[in-house]
Design a protein that fits this description.
single chain; alpha/beta; seven-stranded mixed β-sheet; about 35% helix
Length: about 425
């Protein structure tokens, strides 16, 4: 990842959805002013989701996402449709592209309802306006809540009837022509207006620090560490400490004890990589607050309380129970990989039970968690807030406890209570 770029997880995710040949790719290309997606008159040209990180004014850093048609057919078509629905789980603003020459289909209505249930802000882009019949335009206005087919500004109208958004608001409906560029500026403005992203309730760490406070960051440099750079949570934490006008001191775990002795003042906080939690806790005096990057990330993504409650399910596991270990990204597995080797080992050592381990990575988080007694997720640094909210919500809806790597490690090492002491509202749960 280019350290000079805003990471994907911090960008507004804009997804373009609709039927084959409605013009999703053409509309997205017109919005961006770039040929990001292949376009063709042949149905089903987009066979896999297309992602592009870019700057889109007036929004700023975004990820544009083009998706396969929701009316695709056959066995492969069904797989592509499922891919499109997976993209919804990370979408901050959904753009439903309609074929203006055909009007609203049952597939369009079903997708709009799915978006409503997920409470995703929706913009309806009616493409091919140059081919529309007047009665089709009036029908579309009525379909999305514009009673009486009254006249509206050409580029965008706010409709007040149908409940298409979760908060009761009707979507923005924009009539455009990807072929001529008509209405595209209005569409961009409405996308920006609808971009009500999932803003975390807390900063990552800066709200825990005062100006001139010292935070010591413990960063192991081992075979799993990326060459020549820090991993994303470490980068983000350092940046957030700077935002607080505080001081960050970065050390390896082997240098922590000596560094603490040499500092002129007691640090406010020690933040460690979870894999060395126990050793760091042993050399950090009890009057210095201690937590981990993974725990900070859980709070930042809005799921810390659920993760702390979920980890206690470890004490209820029995022989033969299945634990799902899920990561938000894919990476080369090391011989002592944390997700596939270390955490399974720690679980079995802690429980003394013969636990079955199931693993997933990247976008492949299962909708059906039946048979799982516990889900353990990575910190989710590469996933945006909406995707993490979906994953934790999926577990909660099915009654499956869910936690994350750092919280589980602290729990099995007997230091979880100390590790969340910096968060009084969470500390009181233990």
């Amino acid at each position: 990842m280019d350290m000079n770029q805003t990471p994907s997880s911090e960008r507004v995710h804009i997804g373009f959805f609709g039927k084959r040949n409605a013009g999703k790719s053409s509309v997205m290309n017109a919005v961006t002013g770039q040929d990001l997606a292949v376009v063709s008159d042949v149905k089903g040209t987009t066979t896999d989701p297309v992602y592009k990180s870019m700057e889109l004014l007036p929004l700023g850093p975004v990820v544009m996402m083009d998706t396969p048609g929701i009316d695709d057919e056959g066995e492969l078509g069904d797989m592509r449709v499922r891919k499109s629905y997976q993209v919804l789980n990370k979408t901050d603003v959904a753009v439903l592209v309609l074929d203006g020459a055909e009007g609203v289909s049952d597939e369009d209505r079903a997708l709009a309802e799915r978006i409503r249930r997920k409470q995703i802000p929706l913009v309806v882009a009616v493409n091919k306006r140059e081919l529309m019949r007047p009665e089709t335009e009036e029908t579309i206005r009525r379909e999305f809540g514009c009673a009486g087919g009254k006249s509206h500004p050409e580029n965008a109208v706010r409709l007040n009837g149908a409940e298409v958004l979760g908060d009761g608001c009707a979507p923005e409906v924009v009539f455009v022509s990807a072929a001529t560029g008509g209405g595209i500026r209005g569409l961009k403005e409405q996308i920006a207006a609808a971009a009500r992203t999932e803003v975390p309730e807390h900063a990552l760490v800066r709200d825990l620090l005062s100006p001139s406070d010292v935070a010591v960051l413990v960063v192991p440099i081992d075979s799993a560490a990326p060459k020549g750079r820090l991993i994303l949570p470490q980068q983000q934490t350092i940046r957030d400490i700077l935002e607080a006008d505080a001081v960050s001191v970065v050390v390896k775990e082997t240098e922590l004890e000596q560094t603490l002795r040499q500092l002129g003042a007691k640090p406010k906080l020690v933040i460690t990589d979870s894999q060395v939690f126990a050793g760091v806790s042993a050399v950090t005096p009890p009057d210095i607050l201690l937590t981990s990057f993974s725990i900070l990330m859980a709070r930042y993504k809005g799921n810390l309380e659920q993760a702390v409650r979920g980890v206690t399910a470890l004490d209820k596991l029995e022989d033969g129970d299945t634990v799902l270990i899920s990561e938000g990204c894919t990476h080369h597995r090391q011989c002592d990989d944390i997700g596939t080797v270390k955490i399974p080992r720690w679980i079995r050592e802690y429980t003394g039970k013969d636990i079955r381990i199931r693993t997933t990575s990247g976008t492949e988080f299962p909708d059906d968690l039946s048979g799982c007694r516990l889900v353990i997720h990575c910190g989710g640094c590469m996933l945006n807030g909406r995707e993490m909210k979906y994953r934790y919500g999926c577990a909660a809806d099915q009654g499956v406890p869910m936690t994350n790597y750092g919280i589980l490690i602290a729990y099995v090492k007997g230091i979880l209570k100390r590790s969340v002491e910096v968060f009084p509202e969470i500390y009181g749960l233990l």
